[in-house]
Each structure stands twice: as structure tokens, then as C-alpha cells.
Amino acid sequence: MRYTVSIEIALPREKVVRLLADPAHLPKWLRGLVLHEPLSGEHGQLGTKSRVVMQMGRRKIECTETITRREPADLREIPKTSVVHFDREIVGEGMWSAVRDRLTEAGPDTTLWESENEYRFSGLLMKLVGLLMPGAFRKQSQQHMQDFKAFAEQGKDVRDATG
């Protein structure tokens, strides 16, 4: 299964990239995040493997994330014509996923974040989930982007949300 979601954020790209790359901000916008800890390497750097635990309703999902591409490596003073790439592979029980994020300047103070997502499932349960609920994956990706936009633009923290 593959899909692409995108969103425009009313902030300069350099600021958006720094907010996305900072592990201290993850719990503020990544709804359901319980834990994100590097197992090897430095958070967000190429080749880093991290243990990620997410709470999805009553279910806890644990997976391993590996950063497979980060360009440029230095996120300060990125040339205006450059595209920032941040790719990762996520492996969990019955699931493999690749996320390829691209951030481009949509205007002087606007950033376009495009996220290409690919999923492969193994095991009967996960194959059924992928077959019967493909829209749930796209919806969750879009929700994460909207939560990040609200955090970046207005300082909203998903942990403060009620209900």
C-alpha cells in the first residue's frame, strides 16, 4: 500500500525542519507517542536506530525506526532551492513501512511538507488490517501532519487536548 499526504505550514522551512528534527518536541505533536529512544546513533541522524512505542487506543505498538536518508546533514542555512529529505524505515510485528518526507519552500515564510508512505504487511492479522482499513493509515499520517502544523504555528500540544 502506498499513499502521499502533504500540508503547508506558515513558517520558514529552516524553522520547520529544526522543529521536526528536535526530539524534545516529538511528544508535543506526535499523538500517541509513549517512547522514542535511540538504540544506536544520535537521534535523527543517518543510520540511527530507535525504539518507538505508540499507544493506539488500548493497544501499544512497538517498532524499530531506522533513519535511511537525511539531506542535508546540517539543517542550518539550507539553500533556498534545496529539498530537505528525511526518510526512515519502520519495522514492527507484521509490518514494514518506509516514510519519505520532503520539505520545500512554498514561499518566503511557507513550507510544503510532502510525505510518501509505503506499507507492507505480513501475518494474517496485519494483512487483514491493511486490506480492510487502508484509509486509516492515510488518515493517521494526515492527523500527525495537522498536529505538527498546530504545534509549529500556534504552539498547541496534543497532550493538552481533551477527549
TrEMBL record:
CDD domains, sorted: SRPBCC (cd07812)
Family matches, as SUPFAM superfamilies: Bet v1-like (SSF55961)
Name recorded for this polypeptide: SRPBCC family protein
Organism: Streptomyces kurssanovii
